[in-house]
User: Fold this.
Amino acid sequence: GDFELIMMVTQDSFKIVTGDTWRSIIDDDRGSHTTTLGDNFDFSRVRDVVDIVVGGTSISRRVDEDSIFFLLRDLLFAVEKLSNGDGITRVSFYEGPWDLILQRVGKAAYVTMYRSGRRPGVVVKDQKVSFDGVREGIVTSSKHLVSQALDLDANAAVDPVIASLLAILKRVEKLQRISG
Assistant:
């Protein structure tokens, strides 16, 4: 899939970029220029690449395609928990043995990513970034993904997967406004 990363990268940055391959496959399957995907489409089955970039370095380049809507939803849940005082959260990938650990200490966040299973290994350990950067990176990516879904299907907002993503996105954005 093609990636589009148009942001200034700093040592403190945290970005998530999802692939676009899933959209082109849907467009190819659909063929016509309808504004809905139909009742048989299931956003829970959508897989694509996810590139997590911390401080300008991809930490997820070895990860295969994953359930992008669920993964971003879970990352939003993690941000919500950290915003509400939890010190640490773990987000597991759906299609492989990968885990992302986010730990908040004041205004800082520490990012750890590791692989479990038969070939365990640590990709990055305790890389410090700003918590605001983590939150903004996850919110921006989630908004972009929801926007892509709504562009493909005018009725996507009632799909349970998209509806749950929109609900947690709304809560995180409200927390973001409250905390400054």
In short: Confidence is low (pLDDT under 50) at residues 1-10, 30-35. The radius of gyration is 16 Å.
